[in-house]
C-alpha cells in the first residue's frame, strides 16, 4: 500500500487533533479513498514542526523537528498541514511549501483573510491545491458547498454564527442566567476559549471568517478595515433578559451582502426573533445561513469549537486532495 506522507506545522489544539484522528481513522480513510478512486494508499504523518521539543515528550521523537527546511527539502512529503495559527511565520511557511509544489491545508483564518487572496494566487501559479475548509465554521462544510454545490446560484446574503466561543458564552448567559465572566470561565475550562480569548470576544476571529465567506460568496475580498466589528464583552444579563421579554434572543452575528457592487460586512450583537433559524443555534455550535436566488434560504450547522471538530475539517481537505488531485 502506497504511503502518502504529510507534515504538520504545529502540535497545539488543531495539530494534536489532526494527529489523533489520523491515527484512529487510518484504516477507514484508506478504505474510503479506495472506494472513491481505486487507489490503495494510507496517510502517514512524516514530520511535525514544533518550537520546543521538551513540551512534546509523549510524541515520537523521530517525527519532530524544529527546522522547517527539513520539511521543504523532503520530496516524499506531498501535503503540508499548517496548524500554527497567527500571520507570521505561518504565511511564509505556506508560500514556501506551495513553491516547492506541495499541497497545503490550513485552518488559519487570520493568515488567509490578511493575505487578501495572495495565498490562492501562489497556489494557482504553482499548480497546487490550497484548502482551508476548517478556517471558517468548524465541521460545517460551507466553503465546499459554496464552491461546488451552489454554482448555479447567486448568493445575495450571508449570515452566520461563526465563532463557537462567543455562542457558547451567550447561550450560557441566556439559558442559565450566567454572568459574562462566569460563562467565559466555563468556556475556558471546556477548551472552547483560549486563555487569552481576545480574538474571539472582541470579534476579530469572526471578522476574518466573514471576510473569507464574502470572497467565496461574492467573488471579491472586502477591505478588512471596512468591516464594522463589535465584540461581546459589554453584553449584560439585563440586555439578554430584555430581549427575551420581547420574544427575541441576542446572538453574535457575522453578516455580509453585496450592495451596488460593494460588500457590506459586519460583526455584532443582534436581537433576532426566536422564530429565526439562527436563534436556535446553541452552545459551541456554528451555523451559516445563505440567501440564494435559485436554492432559496439554506442553513448549515455543526460543531464550531474545539480540537477535534476543527481537525475533522482539516482531514476532510487532506482526503479531498488525495482522492481528487493525485
Q: Could you characterize what this model shows?
A:
- With 326 residues, the protein is of the alpha/beta class.
- It folds into two domains: 2-138 and 308-325, 3-Layer(aba) Sandwich (Rossmann fold), CATH 3.40.50; 143-304, 2-Layer Sandwich (Dihydrodipicolinate Reductase, domain 2), CATH 3.30.360.10.
- The chain contains 14 helices and twelve strands.
- The chain has helices at 13-24, 26-37, 68-73, 90-99, 109-115, 118-125, 134-137, 142-149, 164-176, 180-189, 198-201, 204-218, 237-245, 307-325; strands at 2-9, 41-49, 64-65, 77-82, 103-106, 130-131, 155-161, 228-229, 248-259, 262-273, 285-292, 296-303.
- The strands form two sheets. A six-stranded parallel β-sheet has the order 3-2-1-4-5-6, sandwiched between helices. A six-stranded mixed β-sheet has the order 8-10-9-7-11-12.
- Strand 9 (248-259) and strand 10 (262-273) form a beta hairpin.
- Helix 1 (13-24) packs across helix 14 (307-325), helix 2 runs parallel beside helix 14 and helix 5 (109-115) packs across helix 12.
- The radius of gyration is 20 Å and the shape is globular.
- The protein starts with a strand and ends with a helix.
- 44% of the residues are buried.
- The mean pLDDT is 94.
Amino acid at each position: 500500500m502506497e504511503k502518502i506522507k504529510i507534515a504538520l506545522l504545529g502540535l497545539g489544539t488543531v495539530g494534536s487533533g489532526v494527529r489523533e484522528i489520523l491515527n484512529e481513522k487510518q484504516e477507514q480513510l484508506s478504505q474510503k479513498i479506495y472506494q472513491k478512486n481505486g487507489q490503495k494508499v494510507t496517510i502517514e504523518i512524516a514530520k511535525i514542526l514544533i518550537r520546543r521539543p521538551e513540551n512534546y515528550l509523549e510524541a515520537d521523537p523521530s517525527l519532530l523537528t524544529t527546522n522547517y527546511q527539513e520539511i521543504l527539502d523532503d520530496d516524499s512529503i506531498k501535503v503540508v498541514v499548517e496548524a500554527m495559527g497567527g500571520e507570521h511565520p505561518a504565511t511564509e511557511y505556506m508560500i514556501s511549501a506551495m513553491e516547492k509544489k506541495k499541497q497545503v491545508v490550513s485552518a488559519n483564518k487570520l493568515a488567509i483573510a490578511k493575505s487578501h487572496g495572495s495565498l490562492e494566487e501562489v497556489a494557482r501559479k504553482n499548480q497546487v491545491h490550497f484548502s482551508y475548509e476548517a478556517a471558517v465554521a468548524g465541521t460545517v462544510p460551507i466553503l465546499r458547498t459554496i464552491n461546488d454545490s451552489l454554482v448555479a446560484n447567486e448568493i445575495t446574503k450571508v449570515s452566520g454564527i461563526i465563532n463557537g466561543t462567543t455562542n457558547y458564552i451567550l447561550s450560557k448567559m441566556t439559558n442559565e442566567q450566567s454572568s459574562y465572566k462566569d460563562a467565559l470561565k466555563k468556556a475556558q475550562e471546556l477548551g472552547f476559549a483560549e486563555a487569552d480569548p481576545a480574538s474571539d470576544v472582541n470579534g476579530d476571529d469572526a471578522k476574518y471568517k466573514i471576510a473569507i465567506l464574502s470572497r467565496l460568496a461574492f467573488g471579491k475580498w472586502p477591505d478588512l478595515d471596512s468591516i464594522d466589528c463589535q465584540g461581546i464583552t459589554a453584553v449584560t444579563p439585563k440586555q439578554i433578559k430584555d430581549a427575551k421579554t420581547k420574544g427575541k434572543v441576542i446572538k453574535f452575528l457575522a453578516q455580509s451582502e453585496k450592495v451596488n457592487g460593494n460588500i457590506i460586512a459586519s460583526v455584532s450583537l443582534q436581537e433576532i426573533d426566536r422564530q429565526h433559524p439562527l436563534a436556535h443555534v446553541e452552545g459551541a455550535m456554528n451555523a451559516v445561513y445563505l440567501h440564494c436566488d435559485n436554492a432559496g434560504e439554506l442553513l448549515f450547522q455543526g460543531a464550531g469549537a474545539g480540537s477535534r471538530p476543527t481537525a475533522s475539517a482539516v482531514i476532510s481537505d487532506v482526503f479531498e486532495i488525495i482522492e481528487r488531485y493525485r
